């Protein structure tokens, strides 16, 4: 196999080396967080975390655990670099991102350390592609200080039910209003668009509702333009957890199952648009 | 000057339509050259179209049930027309179910290729739909442009990898860069490369094989015999032009190959049983 012969001798020089039999397992999850070009890669012994931010108000994180990779070797405790995500995705899909069964692109991802490019070796059907993507000075990601102890309301839904609602959302509305409450209407999505207002209510005992833990009625508005990119993660996920803390910061956690049945997570944080007076 | 052809077989009609559609994807206008045995669609490499050239040859007998033509004179028995292949393709697509299609050079308001299709009907009265595609008759003094000129001695000739794979790679590379470097040697290896400020990508194909040019006709076989098999011929091309060529391919050819003149041109050749398509891509400076 050509991939294993390439630069075997150079393996020692890499601070990060990750091997994946199916590059789609990485590209699919990265696709779900592409809303801006620049992504911060943080590699630890646990795996890879990829962070994308928009307008200092929204942050998307993709977590790919180390055991998703066939091999994941890290020479340092922490490796951080920034990279152009659009370019990386084009490289990962260089062979067309084949969906046909039995055909997959093998990937070897290497990084030699600060100042070096990220090198990808991709192989499909005996054809080898080598990509060298220049890395950039990593920016410090925003800390949303979202702690699970401060969570006011939390629901876990089957993604199926939210997909339907999101596909029908009135995109002419500037904001999406989320109401979570221990009493009626429990969990409500509202839009205020050109053609009128719309509300989507979820009863708390619905089959789609896996968990309903609401302590206090909370109504917050979030910019539609910031939430829109999260629908890409929703589309490939099977479960979603919607949480808000006392400040109204929204956390959306998506559980994504890849082609090989392994589980990855995508997390979104979004700041509320403005305070809404509660009645 | 006369031309009249009739296609009666539906498979031939589909095939002919496919070829014309492929041409339409490559160019807005081209020259249709009619000779007693062949039809040629020709785009000569002019500066206005970035130096890209095309030549597609169709053996008339493989498509037409009846084929009559009378050229400008008996010693120059051919007709050259300027056509918009898109118009032809659109007309042909609407008559895919016809019992027979006649293509005729006619004079209406202007010179036209009239495509008359006899459509199937349940009654005894037949229905005929005619499309008139305007064409321009090209005078004889401009004909020398359309003669097939021999490719300058190429440095490397190589079979292309599966066009679908190549298209996928070129599509992605087009997102990243405007120019692509094609490299090939006589060991059956071909590389596609791009390089920008952000990224460098190179795709390596191997074991493609090199077509045996001129081995049976002459012993010396030109430059290629004396060439070091490892040494790469390299041409930088406009990635959009290459992509355009790859997008247009609707059927997998029986043979696809590429001749390269180091730092000057790429000549892509696709051979089907009855159609041959050649595409010339000049190097960008």
UniProtKB/TrEMBL annotation, chain A:
GO CC annotation: checkpoint clamp complex
A GO biological-process term: DNA repair
Alphabetically ordered keywords of this record: DNA damage, DNA repair, Nucleus
Classification via SUPFAM superfamilies: DNA clamp
Highest taxon listed in the record's lineage: Eukaryota
InterPro entries xref list: Cell_cycle_checkpoint_Rad1, DNA_clamp_sf, Rad1_Rec1_Rad17
Localization annotation: Nucleus
Pfam family membership, one: Rad1
Subunit structure, interactors included: Component of the toroidal 9-1-1 (RAD9-RAD1-HUS1) complex, composed of RAD9A, RAD1 and HUS1. The 9-1-1 complex associates with LIG1, POLB, FEN1, RAD17, HDAC1, RPA1 and RPA2. The 9-1-1 complex associates with the RAD17-RFC complex. RAD1 interacts with POLB, FEN1, HUS1, HUS1B, RAD9A and RAD9B. Interacts with DNAJC7. Interacts with RHNO1; interaction is direct.
Role played: Component of the 9-1-1 cell-cycle checkpoint response complex that plays a major role in DNA repair. The 9-1-1 complex is recruited to DNA lesion upon damage by the RAD17-replication factor C (RFC) clamp loader complex. Acts then as a sliding clamp platform on DNA for several proteins involved in long-patch base excision repair (LP-BER).
Family designation: Belongs to the rad1 family.
Protein name as it appears in the record: Cell cycle checkpoint protein RAD1
Taxon lineage: Eukaryota, Metazoa, Chordata, Craniata, Vertebrata
From TrEMBL, chain B:
Region (Disordered): 209-230
GO BP field: double-strand break repair via homologous recombination; meiotic DNA integrity checkpoint signaling; mitotic DNA replication checkpoint signaling; mitotic intra-S DNA damage checkpoint signaling; nucleotide-excision repair; response to radiation; telomere maintenance
Keywords carried by this UniProt record: Cytoplasm, DNA damage, Nucleus
GO cellular component, one term: nucleolus
Entry-linked Pfam families: Hus1
Primary location class: cytoplasm
Compartments where located: Cytoplasm, Cytosol; Nucleus
The keyword Flavoprotein is assigned to this record: no
Membrane spanning residue stretches: none
Subunit: Component of the toroidal 9-1-1 (RAD9-RAD1-HUS1) complex, composed of RAD9A, RAD1 and HUS1. The 9-1-1 complex associates with LIG1, POLB, FEN1, RAD17, HDAC1, RPA1 and RPA2. The 9-1-1 complex associates with the RAD17-RFC complex. HUS1 interacts with POLB, HDAC1, FEN1, PCNA and RAD9B. HUS1 does not interact with RAD17. Interacts with DNAJC7.
Family: Belongs to the HUS1 family.
Cited function: Component of the 9-1-1 cell-cycle checkpoint response complex that plays a major role in DNA repair. The 9-1-1 complex is recruited to DNA lesion upon damage by the RAD17-replication factor C (RFC) clamp loader complex. Acts then as a sliding clamp platform on DNA for several proteins involved in long-patch base excision repair (LP-BER).
Name by which UniProt lists this protein: Checkpoint protein
